[in-house]
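#onboarding

Welcome to the new folks! Below is a worked example of what a typical request in this channel looks like: someone posts a single protein sequence, and someone else replies with the predicted structure as tokens. Don't worry about understanding the tokens yet, we'll cover that in week two.

Example request:
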Amino acid sequence: MRNTFLVFFICLFCLVACSTQNTIAPPYNGNRLIIGIIGNPPEIRENNIKFHKISFKELEDSRLLSSFDAVMIMKEHLSEAAESKYAKVYKQASIPFFFVQSTKAFLPFTEEDLSYEDTPELDAWSYAAGYRRTPEGIDNSWSFGLYDDKVTKENIWDVYSRIFTVIETESKKYGRF
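Example response:
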């Protein structure tokens, strides 16, 4: 009887321990965010996010950039975003930048001598990379992977919700809220 109870308990423990837990983040419900975007705005589940389309020329306007909480650059524009003339913009801006579907982290965007094409894949499991140089001159970076490394609408929504949370945290930390 004791062995039966022990086997039952071990089986129950294994079932509980091995069950998959949903770790997808809930929708972002913090402060309203205004995000500059190069490319088409993504489909998201939040209602408190406003995307404002900008061009690369506008990316160089520090006054315009200061009106945003962050800037996102979508996949089809990553090669141009890595041009050396923009490295200074990313390093001097007071906001974070997010490079959507970059598997090369933030390096080709902040290092003037690296092109996007010539930079090796650094984070093959990443869906987006983020970068911000703090007012103290410290480089902060983020990598956002997909849940279970699967491309689904829900997993992509999860990435954006986590990005929005980072944007709000950074904004609070440096006095935007």
